[in-house]
Design brief:
There is one protein chain. The protein has 296 residues and is of the alpha/beta class. It folds into 2 domains: 158 residues, D-Maltodextrin-Binding Protein, domain 2, CATH 3.40.190; 97 residues, D-Maltodextrin-Binding Protein, domain 2 (3-Layer(aba) Sandwich). It is 40% helix and 20% strand. It has 10 helices and 15 strands. It has a 5-stranded mixed beta sheet with strand order 11-10-12-9-13. A 3-stranded parallel beta sheet has the order 5-1-6. A 3-stranded antiparallel beta sheet has the order 2-3-4. The termini are far apart.
Length: 296
Amino acid sequence: MVSIRLAVFTFTCTLAASGAMAQSIGTLQKIKQSGEIVFGYRESAIPFSYIDANQNPVGFSIDLCNRIAAAVRDKLSLPSLRVKFEPVTASNRVPLLVNGAVDVECGSTTNTLERQKSVDFLNTTYVSGTRIMVQTSSNIASIADLKDKAIAVTAGTNNIKAVQQANQAGSLNLSLVYGKDHAESFLMLQNGRVSAFSTDDVLLYSIRAMSRNPAGTKVVGPLLSQEPYGLMIRRNDDEFKKFANDVLGGMFGNGEFKKTYYKWFNAPIPPKNINLSIPMSPELEKLMAAPNSHGV
């Protein structure tokens, strides 16, 4: 029993020491000393960060992180820099970043003011938010056209609040119909029980792309809410934040970012070669011209 307690104590101290070192010396110095950069990735956050058919992490955020790794290799003169990927989840991504187990989280994490109390974010690289999907045959162009109509929302999602706020602000007299999951909500739109289905835009485009008849539905209207996604880093590391943001800024300016976006959002992607057909939002276009890491 004593040996087990000692082992647990030693492990805990090791994690604490690792985190303290990462915070005290900065990410670039940590990478220089270890000879490796560690990226945290999500296993199923298509198209941002997920596993392909060969069990390799791929995606939009993964490409951005690999670009940062290449810049780190040049800056630190480490031609043999090891790039390591560690899977993270919604529940452990922040602790693993804080304690130094990973250096950058390459996923689809929303930059929130609450998370900024524990971690920091690079400049926004995607803007998600609540939008609506309707049947292509309809004349509905925005939520304002849904006055006195029914709209499907999935129970337990943050999108409900955005739809309720739009309903109240526009005096639309909407009837909210709750699906138990996104599949049921989408089915209600397909069979005509509701006139629209609302959730995060990236999910709407993904659901549409994977449906039997993608041409039968369309995503319309402006964002009803905004969620800025960004690569997550440790707090109080201004040197690394500036360095990595400069890398992203270079991509914004030379066209590389748009090419990377097109690769993952407007072209066939693995493993099933589905094209999500998600155009770059006006909000993201503006952020490319004037980058920031503002949270919500």
